[in-house]
Amino acid sequence: MATYATPLKLGPLLLKNRVIMASLTRDRNLVPGPLQLHFSILAGIYNDEQVGGWKKVVDAVHASNGLIFLQLWHIGRVAHPLLQHGRANVAPSALTAQGGKFRQLEGKPGYVQPEAIEDPEKYIVLYIRAAERAKQAGFDGVELHSANGYLAHQFIDNTSNHRTDQWGGSVENRCRFPLRVIDEISRVYGNDRVGIKLSPGGGYNDMGMNEKDTVETYSYLIKELNARKIAYIQLARYWALGDPVKRGTPIDVFQWRNLIDSKHTALFANTDYHPEEGAETLKSGQADGIVYGTL
Predict the structure, then answer these.
(1) In a domain, 159, yes or no
(2) Can you give the pLDDT of all 295 residues of the chain as single tens digits?
(3) How many CB atoms are located within 10 Å of the residue 49 CB?
(4) Residue 35 CA to its chain's centroid (Å)
(5) Whole-number pLDDT of residue 57
(6) Which terminus in the chain has less CB density within 10 A, N or C?
(7) Any idea where the NADH:flavin oxidoreductase/NADH oxidase N-terminal domain is (predicted)?
(8) Is residue 268 in a domain?
(9) Contact 189, 197 (CB under 8 A)
(10) Which residues, 6+ apart, have CB-to-CB distance to 268 below 8 Å?
(11) 164-195 as b/e: b if 16+ CB within 10 A
(12) Model pLDDT, residue 36
């Protein structure tokens, strides 16, 4: 019977407890200032200077006997050209997400139509390079962000992926992109230092299939991920507050618990957990760790 204080073996690593800090885009000024007003740049890991900066973060975490994974993230169609030097936002298909609000831009415009990616393999290479740089910086592992309406999730979801080639259409084809990325970054780090974040219910960034397609798609994807014996699968629950256009599907993420072999792959549960509910989820064995990003 696990509690928050029960250590957890994660591949070659040993977590001291089962409270997981979420990957978050945030800054920590106590009093909002110019950074909060004009913030539009997020930390990357695509050049040597960034590797050096991240190494300082990693060293500080390790000095406190902590472990840290780097989340690999491409936002795809929910970017805006004016925030990336005029370069078009991209997606599996040229389908515009509904909603959005770029508060850094005059008039706070919404999402714009993306360009369809011609060759997804070129974007897989970007994930490989990022994983290689993460290893240079000393991260203990990497997590593929395949949730919340970002690029890998856009390939999975049949509402954002209307491709007719090997990257779209069938469940197997729509899951090809995230599985290819997992395979490639596992070659960089080893499969037991790789994780993935999924949000099957959608909601964020105008994502979400019907329940039938969701169950079929994620049953296949999670079986394939389990077969690869990666370190963990993080499942984010549906969150109504993150679904302003009401596209998501409230769905029980624990229906896939029996597809994940805890002998080699941990299941982390995320989204809107209170301490007591998290404790019960661990006690029942539904999850191996609880991910928190808010107080």
Answers:
(1) yes
(2) 899 999 999 999 999 999 999 998 766 666 666 665 556 667 889 999 999 999 999 999 999 999 999 999 999 999 999 988 899 999 999 999 998 888 888 999 999 999 999 999 999 999 999 999 999 999 999 999 999 999 999 999 999 999 999 999 999 999 999 999 999 999 999 999 999 999 999 999 999 999 999 999 999 999 999 999 999 999 999 998 888 888 899 999 999 999 999 999 999 999 999 999 999 999 999 999 999 998 8
(3) 9
(4) 25
(5) 95
(6) C
(7) 42-292
(8) yes
(9) no
(10) 20, 195, 232, 233, 234, 235, 287, 288, 289, 290, 291
(11) eeebbeebebbbbbbbbbbebbbebbebbbbb
(12) 59
Encoding tokens for residue 127?
């994930």
pLDDT tens-place string over residues 80-133? 999 888 999 999 999 999 988 888 889 999 999 999 999 999 999 999 999 999
Domain of 159, CATH number, reads 3.20.20.70
Determine the length of the chain. Answer: 295
Residue 80 sits in which domain range? 52-292
Other Cβ atoms less than 10 A from the Cβ of 162: the count is: 13
Rounded CA-CA distance 182/193 in Å is: 11
User: CB-based burial of residue 54 (10 Å sphere; 0-12 exposed, 13-18 middle, 19+ buried)?
Assistant: buried
User: Is the CA virtual torsion 100, 106, 107, 113 positive or negative?
Assistant: negative
Neighbouring CB atoms inside 10 A of 226's CB total: 17
Q: Cα(128)–Cα(183) distance, rounded to whole angstroms?
A: 10
Whole-model pTM above 0.70? yes
Q: Is residue 85 part of a domain?
A: yes
Cα of 165 vs its chain's centroid, Å: 25
How many separate domains does the chain show? 1
| Residue 111 known to be catalytic | no
What backbone torsions phi and psi does residue 269 show, to the nearest 5 degrees?
-110, 140
Q: Say if residues 231 and 10 touch (Cβ distance below 8 Å).
A: yes
